[in-house]
Amino acid sequence: MVPRNRKLEKINKQNSTELENLIYGIRPIHEAIKEGKIPEKVLFQQGPSGDNFKSLFHLIRKLNIPFQMVPIEKLNKISKGNHQGVIAFLPLINYITVEELIKNITKTDDIPLIIILDKVTDIRNLGAIARSAECAGAHGIIIQEKGSAPINAEAIKTSAGALSRMPVCREKDLMETIEFLRLCEISIIACTEKAPGTIYSEDLTKPVAIIMGSEDKGISPYILKLVDSKASIPMKGKTASLNVSVAAGIVLFEVNRQRL
Q1: Domain final residue pick, 41, 63, 89
Q2: For the ranges 6-15, 33-42, 175-184, 207-216, which has the lowest average pLDDT?
Q3: Are 138 and 29 in the same domain?
């Protein structure tokens, strides 16, 4: 049995982590957006009106920031402060663009190694992949703006802090991102069990971006059409596929093996 004071300490620590990225009130959220702090999600109270409220609502829609209309009871549960009918959640990490990522890599003598996640939705998988990627010396992770697991406190904890240390790009369009990487002379390799060849026969000593697919559907068909090559991980058992985080670890350290 956990002592009461230690149990309360654990709960308070968890709550403070969850609230680190929370801001509330019409003016504070307006000011945050002006400063370039774009919320990941905004909750609006159902029903209220007023010029300031409407102005913020139109700004959120204009910037295509995800929002949701909720009962005031939900807002009151999240924050005890004067939220004025609106609460916003800021990212826990600082995202960079894929252009910035490439620019940073070119400043080094490193051979680019990038991981692209196509709709990986499980928070623990995302964290585990980030942990392996950082340990393997990957230069960054690219995720989709929509349809991907959120980078929250649990994801950062699962990654052992790797998500706070390595660059993460959150892109609207993976197809455009892949085309840009190819223009930068980075080979795009899809890790899929449907590939005729294995990851061990791929040349991973060149600049590469490895695509890992979602837990249930794998890599999207339209993404597979854009890749330079496809590679599988050879298996002998009867299980159809590996967990995506396990597969990512195998591929990342095969890159290291070849490059070393």
Answers
A1: 89
A2: 6-15
A3: no
